[in-house]
Amino acid sequence: MVALHHQASFLNTQGAPLYYEVAGQGDAILFIHAGIADSRMWDEQWSIFAQHYQTIRYDIRGFGRSQIPAGPFAYHADPANLLCFLKIERAHVIGNSFGGKIAIDFALTYPELVTSLTLVAPSVSGTTPSPAIQQFAAEEEALLAKGDLEAATELNLRTWVDGPRRTPKQVSSMVRQRVYDMQYHAFTIPVPEGAEEIELQPPAISRLAELHMPTLIITGEYDLPDMLFIAQELAKQLPHAQQVALPDAAHVVSMEQPELFNQHALAFLQTH
């Protein structure tokens, strides 16, 4: 295996440091992680994709090593600022869950920067959460208000990693532990006074037809019904979308089924 040049650093943008890593050479791929993880969730993709592409991953603000600014900021501006800083003109973008939402908002705002989208169980800005998701959010908020980070983290694992159709014992203990560590750490990152998210207006749900780049949508068969429904709607509404469902996985498909995920994602990238 060829030794890869690897860079890890911080970019000061939007008023706070953003942690990122770069490896490999060639066309650029940007990975955006899920909202229960950080950039380490892509460990099984990192060295493989970097054999073929200039591969970039970063920690979303409030996750991993990236900080939340004490002022207004837009999640979807960070990918643009990072690519500009790295002097990258266009990139394939791969986003999971909340990272998928950021990828879509980024592609709508800066379509000239996006070669293709791979959306893994993505959220979409402007959608109304179902009663089940609202209940999850309320339970999480109540646990965090009590300071019970362990229970709040386990609630996230049961909801997103296990999914509604499996028990914890039916899921890889290694995957659960890795997500536990990343999610627990995210709960410890402070939100400074004055922090204010600038949301995409109008939201993505009303603008999906604007996304003309080739798009691959990947889901896991054991994910929440909400996420599977969103993926189906995206597959219908995006002009150039294709969809694949992977077995024996819920929301973090790339961690549970890395070989299958890599196979489908690389095959899609190689055709675009």
UniProtKB/TrEMBL annotation:
Residues 28-257 form the AB hydrolase-1 domain. GO terms for molecular function: hydrolase activity. Keywords: Hydrolase. This is Hydrolase. It comes from the Bacteria. It comes from Reticulibacter mediterranei. The keyword Signal does not apply. Pfam families: Abhydrolase_1. One of its GO terms (cellular component) is membrane. Signal peptide: none annotated. The keyword Hydrolase applies.
